[in-house]
Amino acid sequence: MENPFKESPLQKIEDDLLRDKGITLYIKRDDLIHEHIQGNKWRKLKYNLYEARLNKQNTLLTFGGAYSNHIYATAAVAKLFHFKVIGIIRGEEPVVKSATLEFAASQGMELCYMDRETYRQKDDPMNIESLRVQIGDFYYIPEGGTNVHAVEGAEEIIEELNVPFDYVCTPCGTGGTLAGLVAGLRGEKQALGFSSLKGDDTLTANVNQLVKAYTGVEFSNFSINFDYHFGGYAKVKPELIQFIKEFKQKHDIQLEPVYTAKMFYGLFDLIKQNYFPKGSSIVALHTGGLQGLSGYAEYFT
Ligand SMILES: *Cc1c(COP(=O)(O)O)cnc(C)c1O
Question: How much is the pLDDT for 199?
C-alpha cells in the first residue's frame, strides 16, 4: 500500500512582531499529515495500532465526546488499516448526530453511548472489563489516545525538527503530546504546553507520569501555561475567533478554536510580553484537528 501519510513540513513564519522582537518562529505542520488523520492524533495512534496488531487484536475500542478529534481520527485510521472499531461516546444518543459522529459512522465505527455518570469512571479497569464481557475482546485506546504508546509516536516529532531551536510549543488536552515532546528532548531545550482546559495540577502530573513510564526518567525542562483557555475546554471568545480569521489571512494557515488557536494566541501574546529572550528560535506544533471547525460553523460565516 502506498503510504497515505505525508511528512509534515516546517514552515518559517514572517511577521512584524517576530522581527521586532528578534524571534524566529517555525510551525511544524502536522495538520498536513493526512486529510482525516491529522496531527497529534496520528502520532498518538500509530504505535497503538502496531501494539494492537502485535497482540493480534482486530477490534479497537476507544472513548470520546461528540466533537472529538480523536474519535474522528480513530474511525478513519481503523478503516484505512481494516480494524473493527467501537467508539464509546459521552452522553445520550443525540437526535441529530454531529458532523464528527456522522463521519465516524461513515467510516464504519460502531457508536455506543454512555451516560455521563458512567463515563466519568470509563477508565476504571472494572468498567473496561465489563465492556469486554458485553462486547468481546478489544484493544483499548484511552480517550484522546493518550498512553505510553502515544508518547512513543509523539516523540518522533522531535527527531523530525531539522532546524536549530530553543523552545518547542504544543497545545495540551491530556498532555500526551507534550509528554512525547519532553521524552524526545531528553532534557535539552524547553517544551512549553498551552492548556486548552482551565488549570489543574493533574495535567503536569500526567505529563511527568507518561514521560517516566516511557523513558524511565523525569525531566524538568517543560512548563504548562494555563492563561489562554478562554473560559475552558471548547469555549471561545470573539477575540479568539478574530485571531483565527487574521491568522488565516496573514499566513494562509487554518487554525481551530479548541486547541491550535489558543496556543498561537498565547504564543504571540507571550512574545509581545518579551517572555522569550531576543534571538530565540521557537517551533510551534500545529496539531491539526481541523475537523473540529464543523462545531463552530456559525462563527465563520
Ligand atoms: C487532541 C488534541 C490536542 C491535545 O493533545 P493531548 O495529547 O491530549 O494533550 C491538541 N491539539 C489538537 C488539534 C488535538 O486534536
Answer: 82
Q: Which domains does the chain have, with CATH numbers?
A: 10-35+148-299 (3.40.50.1100), 40-145 (3.40.50.1100)
Q: Is the CB of 287 under 6 A from ligand 1?
A: yes
In angstroms, rounded to a whole number, what is the distance separating the alpha carbons of residues 282 and 301? 33
Q: Which atom of ligand 1 is closest in space to residue 171's alpha carbon?
A: 10
Q: Which three cell numbers stand for residue 159?
A: 527527531
Ligand 1 contacts CB of residue 193 (under 6 A): no
DSSP bridge pairs for 87: 62, 111
Mean pLDDT of 45-68: 98
Q: pTM above the 0.90 mark?
A: yes
Angle at CA of residue 86, ends 210 and 232, nearest 5° = 50
Taking the C-alpha atoms of residue 41 and residue 193, their distance in angstroms, rounded to an integer, is 16
Length of the chain: 301
C-alpha 5 – ligand 1 centre gap (Å)? 18
pLDDT at 2: 77
39-78 per-residue burial string, b: 16 or more CB within 10 A, e: under 16: bbbbbbbbbbbebbeeeebebbbbbbbbbbbbbbbbbbbb
